[in-house]
Design the sequence.
């Protein structure tokens, strides 16, 4: 009669302890109380017939046997993830419904063309689309509500798989009557960081990316904080102040003369647009089809 199958939760805990360097930190990573975690590790060691961790005042580290155990545990958990993904894909295959979260700039300027191409190549796939900021998309991926997400933030958390799609340029824009519109020299990063801007809300990928590229800007209070690119454009056009937005979001307004682009000295503000998901590392089914469309070179 075969022995008991491994406890996958216990294996996940053991790997978290090894990765974090301590039982308490590993337990917190999995949202588990430390006494329960201690009992679970003790059960693993009893089943293994050897010590898997060396405990010390500075934390816990894997023994030589524990390192080998961890390597096999990772293989098993990866296989379990693949199995779970296959099972979910099989269950949803007939319906071909794909739950997608997309951040606002991508939703407004890229997703319509992607969905048109997906419908051409995979007409049976139906996409349930939810438009959020990047933080909201990542939250939906984390809690399993969304199968695939598209974000603009550089802050993709550990445990979430990411596929780089393309670069996107951020540009400084002002109204045609703003003093910066007629300045002869490019704007310096120091000037930009010290200027009160019209910005997107906290959690927006546009704002996250800009503050990652220009960290000092986070210390300057905004003149307005708004919840959409369209609202920011209207505020800038009305003279509220400068803004930093995706070129995708301001190209038409620049061409129409409603906004003016201000060059920035010695730097180009670029960010990555990224597809994100949890589960198996390799996408399959409708999620893989949409990611392939999104990552194809722009025509």
Sequence:
């Amino acid at each position: 009669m075969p022995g008991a199958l491994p406890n996958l939760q216990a294996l996940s805990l053991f790997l978290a302890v090894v990765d974090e360097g301590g039982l308490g930190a590993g337990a917190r990573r999995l949202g588990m109380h430390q006494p329960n975690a201690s009992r679970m590790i003790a059960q693993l060691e009893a089943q293994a017939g050897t010590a898997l961790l060396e405990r010390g005042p500075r934390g816990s580290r894997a023994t030589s046997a524990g390192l080998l155990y961890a390597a096999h545990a990772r293989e098993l958990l990866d296989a379990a993830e693949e199995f779970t993904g296959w099972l979910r894909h099989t269950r949803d295959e007939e319906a071909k419904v794909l739950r997608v979260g997309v951040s606002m700039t991508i939703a407004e300027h890229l997703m319509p063309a992607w969905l048109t191409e997906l419908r051409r190549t995979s007409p049976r796939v139906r996409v349930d689309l939810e438009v959020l900021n990047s933080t909201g998309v990542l939250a939906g991926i984390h809690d399993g509500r969304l199968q695939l997400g598209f974000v603009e933030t550089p802050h993709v958390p550990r445990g979430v798989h990411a596929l780089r799609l393309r670069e996107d340029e951020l540009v400084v824009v002002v109204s045609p009557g703003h003093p910066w519109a007629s300045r002869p020299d490019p704007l310096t990063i120091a000037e930009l960081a010290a200027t009160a801007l019209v910005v997107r809300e906290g959690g927006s990928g546009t704002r996250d990316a800009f503050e990652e590229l220009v960290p000092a800007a986070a210390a300057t209070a905004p003149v307005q904080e708004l919840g959409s690119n369209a609202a920011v454009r209207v505020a800038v056009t009305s003279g509220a102040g400068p803004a930093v937005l995706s070129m995708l979001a301001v190209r038409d307004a620049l061409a129409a003369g409603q906004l003016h682009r201000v060059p920035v000295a010695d730097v180009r503000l670029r960010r990555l647009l990224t597809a994100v998901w949890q589960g198996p590392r390799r996408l399959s089914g409708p999620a893989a089809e949409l990611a392939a469309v999104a990552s194809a070179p722009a025509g």
User: Anything to note?
Assistant: The mean pLDDT is 91. The longest helix spans residues 64-92. The domain at 96-166+272-295 is CATH 3.40.190.10 (D-Maltodextrin-Binding Protein; domain 2). The chain has three domains: 8-91, 96-166+272-295, 168-270.
